[in-house]
Amino acid sequence: MKHTLSVLVEDESGALSRISGLFARRGFNIESLAVGPAELKGQSRLTMVVKGNDLTLEQMTKQLDKLLNVLQVSDLTMKPAVERELMLLKVSAPPQQRSAILELVQVFRSKVVDFADEALTLEVVGDPGKLVALENLLKPYGILEIVRTGKVALERASGINTEMLKSSTNSGSFPA
Question: How many Cβ atoms from other residues are within 10 Å of residue 133's Cβ?
């Protein structure tokens, strides 16, 4: 199972190295890692996506808590959270295919950030599933280059799990 961890750390030299080293020593691959300044000066927040069972991740969380410079570790996997990722995607777009690609851009609420004779560069922001869906739809046109930031996530202050609401709405439990 994939787990999303949010790790608050002090901005100190070597903090990221110690965290990634902890996972590497135990044979865990970090599938996604995004790091940036947190709400307080001198702190950063890491958002990591790692695979593992619940017991193993509980042990890793405890070990993370023991590291120098780690202030807080939260497993957001089962908590209501806002998750976003950024993808830049360069797709082959000869004139005869461009209108179909631009329709997909609109449907996915993406942006064209570069326009050339034979290619478009798109900016897509959303939950990871949205990015994968658009990437799959654009594959037949020819993806030339792609880069993704990795997931960033925060626990929802409202405590409302929108994923559960979506599935409940689809099953007919709630009026549309």
Answer: 16
Beta carbons within 10 angstroms of residue 45's beta carbon: 20
Q: Hey, what are 74's tokens? A: 């939260």
Report the distance separating Cα 32 and Cα 43, nearest Å: 20
Measured distance CA(4)–CA(75) in Å, rounded: 6
Cα 129 from Cα 133, distance rounded (Å): 6
The DSSP 8-state label assigned to residue 53 in this structure reads -
Instruction: Write out the H or E segment, with its range, that includes residue 66.
Output: helix 54-66
Q: How far is CA 106 from CA 1, 85, 153, 176, in A?
A: 33, 18, 25, 23
pLDDT of residue 161: 80
The per-residue pLDDT for range 74-99, each reduced to its tens digit, is 999 999 999 999 999 999 999 999 99
Q: Sign of dihedral through CA atoms 161, 107, 136, 86?
A: negative
For residue 121, the model assigns a pLDDT of 98
Q: What is the pTM of this model?
A: 0.80
Distance from C-alpha of 43 to C-alpha of 8, rounded to nearest angstrom: 7
Distances from the Cα of 18 to the Cαs of 8, 9, 95, 100, 164, in angstroms?
A: 14, 11, 50, 47, 36
